[in-house]
Write a structure and sequence with these properties.
By secondary structure, the chain is α/β, with parallel strands linked by helices. It has a single domain, classed as 2-enoyl-CoA Hydratase, Chain A, domain 1 (Alpha-Beta Complex). Helices cover 41% and strands 17% of the residues. The chain contains nine helices and nine strands. It is globular.
Length: 254
């Protein structure tokens, strides 16, 4: 199973659910494409006033589906296609959504989970949730536009710790660092996210959409260096992913 992104509509609200059973909702390539499709369609609904984005089964998203990586990550062309045409296209669709998006964050919020939640307007997390992007252990960097997105949301210092030190933070620390709007007991996260979406839905919908357009206009796009994906065929990249898939510690050499 490659996972899926599901949508449920109730009144003026929509619930978008990341679902990849057995993988803590890790994002497959198919899920990235579905995320784009879902968030491209949502703003076209004039009656929609709020979106709750969540994961299934007590976790938000544990990152990318690493089991797929050997099939495309080791060639610059296919690696660029993945990040620019699939991952970034999905993230951009969330960023471009004129309807306010509330992130309901539970459990693991790692890598792709941090990126997706960074695209949301209000982030509400459970006390046991964890955040990070420890891809240095896998032998590769974060793609340029994704890194810019994360740094803008979590702060430059936190992004550097996540990417250079493979640091993982608890929810209380991420609240202190300004990434989270609200922290709740795990059992209360879903109710708080829904209540937040209902409060948004009760306000002026045109003003909400215009505010989102203003915020988007104020953001600056990061340029992608021409050699950003040249590392695809490197031994370090291959070793990091191979070690993970074989459940051993990577042996990185200079």
């Amino acid at each position: 199973m490659t996972g899926e992104v599901r949508v449920a509509r109730e009144g003026a609200l929509a619930w978008v659910t990341l679902s990849h059973p057995g993988k803590l909702n890790a994002m497959s390539r198919a899920m990235w494409r579905e995320l784009r499709q879902v968030f491209t369609a949502l703003p076209q609904d004039a009656g929609l006033r709020g979106v709750v984005l969540r994961g299934e089964g007590g976790h938000f998203c544990a990152g990318g589906d690493i089991s797929e990586y050997p099939s495309f990550r080791f060639a610059p062309e296919s690696l660029r296609e993945f990040h620019e045409d699939e991952v970034w296209a999905g993230l951009q669709a969330v960023l471009d959504c004129d309807v306010p998006v509330v992130a309901q964050i539970e459990g693991a919020c790692m890598g792709a989970g941090v990126e997706i939640s960074a695209c949301c307007d209000i982030r509400i997390a459970g006390e046991s949730s964890r955040f990070g992007a420890p891809i240095a252990k896998l032998g590769f960097p974060m793609a340029p536009r994704e890194a810019a997105l994360v740094a803008a949301a979590v702060g430059n210092a936190t992004a550097r710790e996540m990417l250079l030190e493979a640091a993982v933070f608890d929810a209380a620390e991420m609240k202190l660092r300004g990434f989270l709007n609200r922290l709740r007991p795990d059992a209360a996260v879903a109710a708080e996210a829904e209540a937040t979406a209902h409060r948004i839905a009760a306000l002026a919908p045109q003003a909400a959409r215009m505010n989102k357009q203003t915020f988007r206009a104020l953001a600056t796009a990061a340029a992608v260096p021409p050699d950003a994906y040249a590392y695809a065929s490197s031994a370090e990249h291959r070793e990091g992913i191979t070690a993970f898939l074989h459940k051993r510690k990577p042996a990185f050499t200079s």
